[in-house]
What we know:
Largest sheet: none
Helix content: over 70%
Shape: elongated
Structural class: mainly alpha
Number of strands: 0
Radius of gyration: 18 Å
Number of helices: 9
Distance between the termini: 27 Å
Amino acid sequence: MDRSAKTVSESALHQEWEEIRAAQGNPALFRPLYERYYESVFRLIHRRTTDMELSGDLCSQVFLKALQKISTYTFQGVPFSAWLFRIAVNEVSQHYRQQQSNRVVSVNDLHLHDLIDEIGSDPEEQELLRRKMLGALENLKADDMQLIEMRFFEQRSFKEIAEILGMTENNAKVKVHRILERLKRRLSGG
């Protein structure tokens, strides 16, 4: 998977950090960050809810919390969006816990194909494997599905996943690898 399009230059990170520091001193200066990231945070939430109104409400909560806690933000060497995405993931999880309902996972055929390719399969068995994969994904624990979704459906780097979920990059890699191994076993009937 080519992730080069998601790479952010050091100068862009530095410029963004300056904007964050300005917003920490004056909350009115948070607006450029809001405008830059609103759409991507909304899309992340909408992929998990598939409800426009709920997505808008949760997105508002994300930015309200971000604005309230901007003074606690510290630069970690990744885009500010990782911090916002962590807040968004937590807000979605909290919503589903409170509603005691299951989270929605939006599966794109192209990204499902990437996941199937990662596991490795015979090209002649792709359609059968696709159906089996959908069933196997439904049976994953919520935390495991979140990792697979971020890595394959949202095409996030391990560094981004680690920052969003508050773990090390190596831990994110190991967890995804183990989930893929379990999926392979399930798909092969083992």
